[in-house]
Structure formats: structure tokens, C-alpha cells
Amino acid sequence: MSKLLTTAAGAPVADNQNVQTAGPRGPMLLQDVWHLEKLAHFHREVIPERRMHAKGSGAFGTFTVTQDITRFSKAALFSAVGKKTEVFLRFSTVAGERGAADAERDIRGFAVKFYTEQGNWDVVGNNTPVFFMRDPLKFPDLNHAVKRDPRTNLRSTESNWDYWTLLPEALHQVTILMSERGIPASYRHMHGFGSHTFSFINAANERFWVKFHFQCQQGIRNLSDEEAQAVIARDRESAQRDLYESIERGDYPRWKLQVQVMPEADAASYRFNPFDLTKVWPHQDYPLIEVGVLELNRNPDNYFADVEQAAFTPANVVPGISFSPDRMLQSRLFAYGDAQRYRLGVNHHQIPVNAPKCPFHSYHRDGAMRSDGNHGGSIGYEPNSKGEWQQQPSFAEPPLALQGDAANWDHRADEDYYSQPRALFQLMTQEQRQTLFDNTARALNGVPQPIQQRHIDNCAKADEAYGAGVRTALESQRTLW
Ligand code: HEM
User: Residue span of the signal peptide, if any (predicted)?
Assistant: First the structure.
């Protein structure tokens, strides 16, 4: 390959060390177009960061089917045991900006793109099976509460806890975040979850409700607050470094994909709303069923090209896998593509990391940065008499029965948001509970007393011992105001 330097237009660059000036001491000449081009490109190198999950790491790999689940889903990627599908996975933290330290107490993103022969399937999940809320109208508020204070430009524990404690449905996720699992030691040492309820459709066009679990095969490892502080003091990129180096040395991380499957009709009679993102489906009701193994085995050659420009969206589903009535999921079907049209442009699906690996044809044309030939001279309308790009009715989903009056239904009043945090708390050993109390008390440091009290009250609604433990830890750390 030629090592000769050229301009973006391919012309030879004669001097990349000295700008053109009028004489050895004179001012610069505007005709030094190489210098102008270099500056102009430099000024535009930063693109908007993701509104959340801005700091992340990614890698390519393979998904291999190990068990037959064709009775539940006709998705081509599950069609045969042993079948392999290429994947790209991006991990992230949520609240920090692009330069934030990796080892923060925060939820971790776990976003997988499966490049199937029927299009891309994205699972845009987290390392927790539940979320802070179940109504998408509250999502922008969450981000304003956990990001920076508008005046101080500091992260505000007061805003953070004020918001969380006013949402009773957040306690389950807050309990996980404050537990010993709140700071994963690395991206390789945590589980991943699709979190929402999705649907499977089989060849007989029967629908099932499904939850996706990626079970970590490296073993779960976490950091204490103290350990995380020490890690951050010497390395803000600890998770990126760990993932990159383990793949470089051939130590490929793996996750076992498992599903919980609920027959469609069960949803109506199940003891709670199975589309509520703040709740898990207990395994004794819907046991885990093995599907396959996901392995990461190739680092991207260029971080910006593949990781920064990656665009995941829950809207990317393939025949045999689909959505559910979960309103959070429904909102996300719009949010991601919309954010990416702003962050990357309307043709972001052409960027190699995002492009399907199967042929794709639509009537979309033009738009900024169209770089695939724009379908050349082929017609851009339908119906047409040329037989081009016909819809595929055989992939229509079975109808889904819906009912109800249109209103802003309040789901808080009559719902139980405490029994699942209670069950989680009661599963913990005494030592794990103490860690939960101490982490919570440290995180509540500096938060005004009425908000601390509100959290203690919420915890006590789950279990008296939970509330009392947090109170005692606050007192002993002298962080109770
Ligand atoms: C990133 C919106 C809930 C996981 C993002 C982005 C937006 C967004 C706009 C940035 C997308 C981009 O620029 O590429 C929302 C909305 C939500 C929601 C509106 C609720 C209504 C969730 C939930 C999960 C989740 C429940 C996990 C279960 C992620 C992940 C990323 C992300 C992993 C980063 C994806 C990547 O690595 O590129 N979200 N989100 N989000 N979100 Fe959400």
C-alpha cells in the first residue's frame, strides 16, 4: 500500500511540516489549502455523544445455537443447533459522559446486534433485569436527575435521590444498584438482560411472551466502593482495557443466552402485569431455557468507526421475534432511531457496523451522506408495474387482541412495587445486606434529610429490616442529616 500523503481529494501533499507564509517571518497565505483542509476536518471530528450510555466499549463475536427453540420462534438465526450468527456488542455506563470513568456505581448497558440473514436483530439491554420506571414519559426526567445540575454543573446526589424516592416503582432497580452488584468489576463479569418482555412467533404463527437473559460464563465479579475508588484513581478506562486486552490475548468472554417463555394467553391471568419493566418473572413460574452461546472474539480496528458510530435500536427485530405491549419498549421503538438520525444522520444504517449483512431494499432515497449508490436508476415508488421491492405478507404477525379506553392511566395507585424488592432483600445473606446498607448510606451522603427519610420509608415498605439497616448505616457513617 502506498505510504504517500495526499489531500482528501487525492492530490499529493508536498509539505506537512510548515504552513505557507509570505517570507520566513511573514503571515500565512490563505491559499495553503492543505492547512485549511486539515483544520476544517479537525473542527468537525467530534460528533454528539449518546444522550445516555455515552461511555462504552465494543467488540465483535459469534452467537452459536446450542438448543432447539424452533417450537417458540421461527427466527432464522435459531433455525438449527450449531448455527452461527455474527454479532457486535457494545457495553456502556449510563450517566457519565464520553470521558467518564468506567468503574462507577451505575447500571451497565449491554447492547447486542445480531447480523442475521433476515436483517439485524438488536437486544438493547442492561446488566439488570428491571428498570427504574415503567412509564416512558418519566425517562427524560430520569436523565436530567442523574446527569449534571444546571447551575453547579456537578452531578447532584440530591436531584438523583429526590427523583428516585418519588417513584415507588424505582426501588427494585435502586436496590440492585446499591447492592454488591452495583459496580461490576469489568464488562466481562456481569450478566446481560433484554429486561423488557418481547415476543416470539413460531412457524405456526403462535405468539409467546419472552424475556432474554445473557448469563455470564466468566463468573460475576464486583468492586466495593473502596476498590472502585482505587481503580478510578489509577485507571479511568478499566473496563475498556479489560475487554480489549482479554480479547487480544485470546481469552474470549462468553455469555449463555437463555429465555423465559410465557404462552400468549397466560398474560391475561398472570398474577401481575407481565409487561411491567420494574418486575422480573420468577424462575419458578417461567424457568430458564437455554438457547445458545455468545462469544466476543474480535476487537474493532477503529473505535470511532465501529463503537462510537454503532446504532442499536429495539425497533430492529426479525421475523419470529417482536415487541410486546410494554409501554417503555414502545417508546424506545421511536427514541433510538430518532436519536441516531440526529447523532449520526438519516443514513446511519449504511455505516458498516450498522449495515445488515443480508441484502436490503427500501424506497428510502437520498439524504445526507448517502454513500451506497442510492439504488442507482431503480425506481423509488410503489405500487409500480416493474415488480420491484414487493412487500412480504407471509411475514405478517398474528393479530394481537387489544382493548381499553384511551386515557392517561395511572399505573402507580394499585400496583405492588415492594414485594419484588422484598424478595430480593430476603435472598441476601446478612453480609450482602450490610453491603447494601453501607453502599446506600454512602450514596445518600449530602442528600437532605427529608429525602433520606423518604428512602428509608420506601425500603421499610419492602422490609422493616431494610429500612432500619439503611437508617443505622446512615447514623454510623454520620451521613444522616
Ligand atoms: C441508549 C432512550 C430505556 C438501554 C439510549 C439512547 C436513547 C435512549 C435516546 C441513545 C441512543 C443513541 O444515540 O444511539 C431511551 C428511552 C427509554 C430508554 C426513551 C425509555 C423510555 C432503556 C432501557 C434500557 C436501555 C429500559 C435497558 C433495558 C440502553 C442502552 C443504550 C441506550 C444499552 C446504549 C446503546 C449503545 O450501546 O449504543 N437510550 N432508553 N434504555 N439505552 Fe436507552
Answer: none
